[in-house]
């Protein structure tokens, strides 16, 4: 994970770009990692983000951006291999382990990641976080789902509608 | 059960009010992003998530959610089986191949519960049609109903132009074709054919076959619909409908003579079972114009009625063999040595005992106690949601 704003002079090393979060923190990362974002890719191809300029990201705060970049750095090598068709099983298992751990986070962080992945158009991250939300629902009763996702308790009216639906579609809940 | 026709009950004033006041699908996320999460929820969870709140129920009641699932490759295929038990009542159940469980479904509308010779077809991947057939009391029917797997309801569409039963049916370009069959009257064996276009929601006559036929086998191959069956003199005849010219002609090559039930047009190739239990499969070779052995599991299961193949369907890109005992075998066409036996028959026995016990309790007139699991499969289809 690149620290905010390190010095120049990595001659011959991978090209670096600087991203600036909404709260003005600067992140320097390899262009290849940042290019996982479709939004950033074009700017970077145009030569943006280098030197002292940096690319401002007014919709992403530093906590979220640092998490997003953690994902990008981990996934950049595989992405460079064209979706890793020649990756070894070990590599794939390692990425999968990383992904599972990566989304093991609070719901508020997860939602921020969903927004950021959408704004930055990072396809892999978008489906990873969306799938996590779907997995949080898996195997739970409607009431458990409501609690997990922070819904308020159902009103008597909602409860009545629920019961009516159960009655009509009783066969579906056997 | 009467098919529900869902009225277009949009109360404009209250719905506008609803929209202003309605809570987000997921609190803290714009709806667009919430949907991108919710569309990934497995189909088996759908009845449950409909109960979470009104908005989720609305989302799962509309087409948008499902078209998004389809477009994103999230849609799941389940096998649907119509069968007749010893009490002659038609029942149907769905099998979820991912979770390997059988699911209950809304009862088949009463007009089909004792009907014979009705057709069954799928349009749009998720609408299952039952059509025609003969009711033992009221006689042949023109009726057409369909089950919408997205909203789990039976609905009705316009009747066919002719009453018919034991006819042939197929789907080409998402239109439903029917031909031949039997009816009452002087010309019992029908030559007539018709097509249902779901976009225009009506039936149209197409050219008549050259002779009346009660089809026993049919297949769509190379943009042609091949039908083989018996004419009014109980002789085997075959005809082919050419979609391009909208005409019928006779067909008598090796492909048609070798065509047997059940068969399937899968990935541009024709497959047919070569043994009653489906342990051997044949494929039609268009270069040599002959049927050849495609695969042989070398594990003959037996020749009883229960082990007989009822249908071949395409399931999640695999060739799926379904037997009367509700067992399912999946074959990877690209590698026919990879044969997956799905444990569906054992799952079925457990499920059916529970289910039959319930229906026995619900209907004390029923004389079949919950131990008779003998079934005869009428139709198998795959629906994607």
From TrEMBL, chain A:
Q: Which residues form the SKP1 component dimerisation domain?
A: 124-163
Q: Ranges for the SKP1 component POZ domain?
A: 16-75
**Classification via InterPro entries:** SKP1, SKP1-like, SKP1-like_dim_sf, SKP1/BTB/POZ_sf, Skp1_comp_dimer, Skp1_comp_POZ
Q: Which GO BP annotation is one of this protein's?
A: protein ubiquitination
Keywords attached to this Swiss-Prot or TrEMBL record, sorted alphabetically, are: Ubl conjugation pathway
- In which domain of life is the source organism classified? Eukaryota
Pathway where it operates: Protein modification; protein ubiquitination
Q: How does it assemble?
A: Part of a SCF (SKP1-cullin-F-box) protein ligase complex.
Known function: Involved in ubiquitination and subsequent proteasomal degradation of target proteins. Together with CUL1, RBX1 and a F-box protein, it forms a SCF E3 ubiquitin ligase complex. The functional specificity of this complex depends on the type of F-box protein. In the SCF complex, it serves as an adapter that links the F-box protein to CUL1.
Family, according to the entry, reads as follows: Belongs to the SKP1 family.
Protein's name in the database? SKP1-like protein
- Highest classification ranks of the organism: Eukaryota, Viridiplantae, Streptophyta, Embryophyta, Tracheophyta
Q: Which gene encodes it?
A: ga14711
UniProtKB/TrEMBL annotation, chain B:
Q: What Gene3D superfamilies does the annotation carry?
A: Kelch-type beta propeller
Where does the UniProt annotation place the signal sequence? none
* Keyword Repeat carried by entry: yes
Record's keyword annotation contains NADP: no
The record places domain F-box at: 29-69
Under Pfam families, the record lists: F-box (PF00646), Kelch_1 (PF01344)
Which UniProt keyword terms apply here? Kelch repeat, Repeat
Which stretches of sequence are listed as region Disordered?
A: 1-22
What protein name applies here?
F-box domain-containing protein
- Give me the gene this protein comes from: ga26935
């Amino acid at each position: 994970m690149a620290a905010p704003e390190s010095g120049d002079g990595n001659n011959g090393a991978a090209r670096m770009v600087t991203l600036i979060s909404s709260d003005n923190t600067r992140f320097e990362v390899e262009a290849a990692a940042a290019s996982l974002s479709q939004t950033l890719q074009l700017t970077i191809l145009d030569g943006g983000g280098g030197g002292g300029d940096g690319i401002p990201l007014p919709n992403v705060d530093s906590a979220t951006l640092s998490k997003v970049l953690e994902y990008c750095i981990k996934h950049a090598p595989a992405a460079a291999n064209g979706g890793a068709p020649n990756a070894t099983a070990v590599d794939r298992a390692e990425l999968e382990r990383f992904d599972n751990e990566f989304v093991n986070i609070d719901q508020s962080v997860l939602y921020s990641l969903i927004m950021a992945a959408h704004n930055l158009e990072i396809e892999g991250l978008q489906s990873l976080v969306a799938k996590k939300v779907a997995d949080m629902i898996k195997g739970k009763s409607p009431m458990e789902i409501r609690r997990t996702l922070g819904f308020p308790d159902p009103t008597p009216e909602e409860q009545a509608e629920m019961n009516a639906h159960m009655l009509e579609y009783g066969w579906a809940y056997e | 059960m009467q098919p529900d026709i869902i009225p277009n009950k949009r109360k404009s004033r209250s719905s506008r009010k609803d929209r202003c006041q309605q809570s987000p699908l997921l609190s803290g996320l714009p709806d667009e992003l919430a949907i991108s999460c919710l569309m990934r929820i497995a189909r088996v969870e759908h009845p449950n998530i409909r109960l979470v709140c009104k908005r989720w129920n609305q989302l799962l009641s509309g087409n948008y959610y499902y078209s998004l699932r389809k477009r994103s490759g999230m849609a799941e295929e389940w096998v649907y089986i119509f069968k007749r038990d010893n009490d002659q009542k038609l029942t149907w159940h769905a099998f979820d191949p991912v979770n390997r469980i059988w699911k209950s479904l809304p009862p088949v509308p009463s007009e089909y519960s004792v009907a014979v010779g009705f057709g069954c077809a799928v349009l749009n991947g998720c609408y299952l049609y039952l059509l025609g057939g003969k009711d033992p009391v009221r006689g042949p029917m023109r009726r057409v109903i369909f089950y919408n797997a997205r909203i789990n309801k039976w609905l009705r569409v316009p009747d066919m132009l002719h009453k018919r039963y034991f006819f042939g049916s197929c789907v080409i370009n998402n239109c439903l074709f029917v031909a031949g069959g039997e009816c009452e009257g002087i010309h019992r064996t029908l030559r007539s054919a018709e097509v249902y276009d779901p976009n225009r929601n009506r039936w149209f006559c197409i050219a008549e076959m050259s002779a009346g036929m009660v089809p026993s086998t049919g297949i769509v191959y190379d943009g042609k619909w091949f039908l083989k069956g018996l004419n009014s003199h109980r002789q085997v005849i075959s005809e082919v409908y050419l979609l391009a010219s909208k005409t019928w002609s006779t067909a008598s090559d090796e492909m048609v003579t070798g065509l047997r039930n059940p068969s399937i047009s899968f990935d541009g190739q024709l497959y047919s079972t070569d043994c009653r239990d489906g342990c051997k499969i044949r494929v039609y070779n268009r270069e040599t114009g002959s049927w050849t052995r495609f695969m042989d599991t070398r594990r003959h299961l037996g020749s009883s009625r229960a082990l007989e193949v009822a249908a071949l369907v395409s399931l999640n890109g695999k060739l799926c063999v379904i037997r009367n005992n509700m067992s399912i075998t999946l074959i990877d066409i690209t590698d026919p040595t990879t044969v997956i036996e799905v444990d569906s028959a054992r799952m079925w026995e457990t499920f059916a005992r529970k289910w039959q016990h319930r229906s026995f309790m619900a209907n004390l007139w029923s004389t079949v106690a919950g131990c008779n699991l003998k079934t005869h499969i009428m139709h198998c289809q795959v629906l994607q949601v």
